[in-house]
Design goal:
Elements: H1 6-9, H2 15-25, E1 29-30, H3 42-54, H4 66-80, H5 86-89, E2 90-93, H6 96-107, E3 113-118, H7 124-130, E4 134-139, H8 149-155, E5 160-166, H9 178-191, E6 194-198, E7 224-229, H10 230-233, E8 242-245, H11 248-259, H12 267-277, H13 281-305, E9 308-309, E10 317-321, H14 330-341, E11 343-344, E12 346-347, E13 360-364, H15 369-383
Parallel strand pairs: 1-11, 3-4, 3-5, 5-6, 6-7
Antiparallel strand pairs: 2-8, 7-8, 9-10, 10-13, 12-13
Helix pairs in contact: 3-12, 4-12, 6-11, 13-15
C-alpha cells in the first residue's frame, strides 16, 4: 500500500494521551494533562442543556452565532480596550487548536518560515509542517524564560511569514512582560510579519499581573491574530469552543481554512459561552484567585519534598526541576512517579524540537485542593 502523509505519520501519540492512559492503568493522580477536575459554572451547563433540547440544532453560521461573536467583541473591549467589528473581525472555532490550524493554513504558503519560541505546545510544529511551512525554532531558557531578543532578530528573514506567540505560555507558565511585547512588536513591524497569538490562558495570570494582548500595541492591530478559549476560561475544556479575533484582511483567508475544516461549532455550546463571556468581573477575579491559591499550594509542597520549583506567572502549570531527587531523564522520572508514586506528570523535553533539558517536569495544579494534597503525600512518601 502507498504511504500515508509523511509529516503526520512521523509523530507518535501526544504525550498527554500517553501519560493519561498510564495514569489510568496505575490508578495514579493525573497532574499531567491540563484540565480541571471540576466542571465549569452550572448555569452555563444548564444554558447549553436547555438549548440542546429547545433547538435549533442545525448548522449555525460558519462564523459563529451572532450572540457569541458580539459577546467576544464586548469581552475584548471590556478587558483590553480592543474595538472589534463582530461581523468582520470575530470567528468561532471548534477549539483553540482548530483556530491555530486555521491561521497556519490560511496565512502561510509552502516554503514560508514560521518562528516559534521553544519550549512550545506540542501541536505547533506538526501544523506548521503540514501547512507547508518551515519552522524556525528560537529557544528560551530556564529558569526565567526571558525572551531572547537578539536570537529572535537573527532568526527572522525575508522569508519569515509569521511568528507564534503563546502568553501565558504552556508549558513554562511564562507571561511576557511589557518590554518583551514591545520588542516583539518592533520585530514584527521591522520584518513585516504576522503574529499569531495563542492567548488561551488570558484569565489565568497571577500575582496581580495583567494580561496584555500583543494586538493592542502600536502598529499591531492589522497584523495580529488573537486566539482565545472558552474551555480554559470556564473550565469546560471538553466543549472545544475557541475563537479568533483579527482584522478583516487577515480573518478572511483564515475563515476559508475554517470553512473546509470543521465549518462550524455546536450552537448550544456557543450560546452558553456567550453567557459566560458576559459574566461580571467578580467571576474572572475569583477564577484567578482560586487557581493562584492552588498554584501556591502545589509549589510549596513540591519545594518541601525537594523539587526546585520554577516561577509560574500563569496557565494551569508549574515546572519543577527534579534532579536533586532522581538521577535519570525526565521521561523515566515521569514513568517512575506514575507507576510507583501513583502521580502523573509530563516531561518537559517533549515540548522541544531537538534535545532539550531532561531535568524538568510539568505539573498541572487546576485540581481540587484535596487532590493536590493527596498527590503531594504520595510524592513525599516516594522520595522520603
Amino acid at each position: 500500500m502507498k504511504d500515508a502523509n509523511s509529516v503526520l505519520s512521523s509523530y507518535s501519540t501526544t504525550v498527554f494521551e500517553v501519560m493519561s492512559q498510564l495514569a489510568m492503568e496505575h490508578d495514579a493522580i493525573n497532574l499531567g494533562q491540563g484540565f480541571p477536575d471540576e466542571d465549569g459554572p452550572l448555569e452555563l451547563r444548564k444554558i447549553a442543556a436547555d438549548a440542546l433540547i429547545e433547538g435549533p440544532n442545525q448548522y449555525p453560521s460558519m462564523m459563529g452565532l451572532p450572540e457569541l461573536r458580539k459577546a467576544i467583541a464586548d469581552h475584548d473591549k471590556r478587558f483590553y480596550g480592543i474595538s472589534l467589528d463582530w461581523k468582520t473581525e470575530v470567528m468561532v472555532t471548534s477549539g483553540a487548536t482548530e483556530a491555530l490550524s486555521n491561521c497556519l493554513f490560511g496565512l502561510i504558503e509552502p516554503g514560508d518560515e514560521v518562528v516559534v519560541l521553544e519550549p512550545f505546545y506540542d501541536c505547533y510544529l506538526p501544523l506548521i509542517k503540514r501547512a507547508g511551512g518551515i519552522p524556525v525554532v528560537v529557544r528560551m531558557s530556564a529558569p526565567d524564560w526571558k525572551l531572547p531578543v537578539e536570537e529572535l532578530d537573527e532568526a527572522l528573514t525575508q522569508d519569515t511569514k509569521l511568528i507564534i506567540i503563546n502568553s501565558p505560555m504552556n508549558p513554562t507558565g511564562k507571561a511576557f512582560h511589557w518590554d518583551e511585547l514591545e520588542a516583539l512588536a518592533e520585530l514584527c513591524l521591522r520584518y513585516d510579519i504576522y503574529a499569531v497569538c495563542d492567548e488561551v490562558y488570558e484569565h489565568q495570570i497571577y500575582d496581580g499581573r495583567e494580561h496584555y494582548p500583543l494586538i493592542t500595541l502600536p502598529g499591531m492591530r492589522d497584523r495580529t491574530v488573537r486566539i482565545g478559549s472558552a474551555g480554559k476560561s470556564f473550565a469546560l475544556t471538553g466543549w472545544k469552543v475557541g475563537y479568533i479575533c483579527a482584522a478583516p484582511e487577515l480573518l478572511a483567508p483564515i475563515s476559508k481554512a475554517h470553512q473546509f475544516t470543521t465549518f462550524t461549532t455546536p450552537p448550544n455550546l456557543q450560546k452558553a459561552v456567550a453567557a459566560g463571556l458576559a459574566k461580571d468581573q467578580s467571576y474572572f477575579n475569583n477564577l484567578t484567585a482560586d487557581l493562584q491559591k492552588k498554584r501556591d499550594y502545589l509549589a510549596s509542597g513540591l519545594a518541601e519534598i525537594g523539587f526546585d520549583v520554577l516561577k509560574s506567572d500563569g496557565t494551569f502549570f508549574i515546572t519543577a526541576d527534579f534532579s536533586k531527587l532522581y538521577k535519570g531523564g525526565d521521561e523515566k522520572f515521569c514513568h517512575y512517579i506514575t507507576t510507583e508514586a501513583k502521580v502523573a506528570a509530563v516531561p518537559v523535553s517533549v515540548f522541544y524540537d531537538v534535545e532539550g533539558p531532561n531535568n524538568l517536569v510539568r505539573f498541572c495544579f487546576s485540581k481540587r485542593i484535596e487532590v493536590l494534597e493527596e498527590a503531594l503525600k504520595r510524592l513525599k512518601k516516594a522520595f522520603s
